[in-house]
Design brief:
- The chain is an all-alpha fold.
- It folds into 2 domains: 152 residues, no CATH class; 39 residues.
- The protein is built from 7 helices and 2 strands.
- Strands 1-2 form a two-stranded antiparallel ribbon.
- Helix 1 packs antiparallel against helix 2, helix 1 packs parallel to helix 5 and helix 2 packs antiparallel against helix 5.
- The longest helix has 28 residues.
- The radius of gyration is 21 Å and the shape is globular.
Amino acid sequence: MDTRNKAAIRSSGWRTDLLIGFPDGLLLLLFTTQILHAKSLTVQAFYTIHLLILGIATLLMMIAVFRANRGDEHDDEGLMSKEEKQRLQKLDISQGTIEHIADEMKKDQQQWETTLEEENVQLQKFGLAHALRSTLATGLFFLLGGLIAFVPYLVQENFTTASEVSLSLSIFALLFFAYVKSRITGQHVTRMALRYIMTGGLVILASYLIAIAI
């Protein structure tokens, strides 16, 4: 099906691209640098690994954003299609179970539509130029977030010191991002800041535990 004329959730501008790309890039590189900075790697190997991580992750993010802007290929996204129903029947699943699954999918779809209405999410038509701009902008914001966590290691080859600087910059960036996001979305700034501090804390804790384990 041609998705160009189908309304879907698409980027509404640079603010949306910022909210999507920046925190993911920052948290990803914070996670990987905190795991690897104390390992027995040469400086060049550390740089190469993280440049590859940042480059590949940015590319994957851009692909995902373009696909999201393009929209889904099915009009009845979230509902069970005839093809899906036939596949389940071939697996010898009872008709009652199939109907129950279809009913749950329908309820989820209705809940999703209600959520979109409550959050005032606007559905927009597909436009190639808009999709490409959104893809590039999100990729740049993702890259920027990752560089905040990574650049201290490029500046300071004492990775213990660089890790402390990276951690401090990342926490400050998360707090600033929380403030910006609260202004964009109209949510309470304190609640938003606590959410991102907790998220950053969990990322740091996970990286610490993994670093000990490997």
